[in-house]
Write a structure and sequence with these properties.
Radius of gyration: 27 Å
Distance between the termini: 70 Å
Order of helices and strands: HHEEHEEEH
Number of helices: 4
Strand order of the largest sheet: 1-2-3-4-5
Strand content: 15-25%
Shape: elongated
Largest sheet: 5 strands, antiparallel
Length: about 170
Amino acid sequence: MFSIKAKKGITMISLMVMVIVIIIVIGISLYTGTDLIKKVKLEAIQTNMISIRAKGKGIAEKVNAQIWTEENKVEKRKESYLNNYGLIFVSEEPHGVSQSPLSSVSHECYEITQDTLKVMSLDDIYDEEDKYYIIFASDDYTNLDIIYANGIIYKNIEYFSLAKIQEDIGMEE
């Protein structure tokens, strides 16, 4: 006469377990996504710095070939960098230069301007908020490093120098 139907459905406990699992999955995804975004930004800046360094070596070789026989080479080099490439000599070193291996040797530091990037055919790198510097070792102008003045934090370390980024991180897979 009376039939008891078995109730089917989700119990309150299973619902709460499911909600907790979803929250955990979302938390892991957010953490992983944030870390991935930081890594992509670091790699983009590193790629820009590598491009600038490659073009900077070409410029250094060209300028040094032009002033090879000149007297007062340092002043002629500064003049050529400014007039031909828009590189501005910086007497007061920007923040972050101490991270470069070249900071311990005699060197010259130049600000990379928008004009410099245009001459290098790298004007797509230009951003008003980003500031790059190029450091040349005084005894070998093809030995250079690039400084990203804004710095970038990756795995709780702030990086400025291309050499330091490549030493610590390289192009991680």
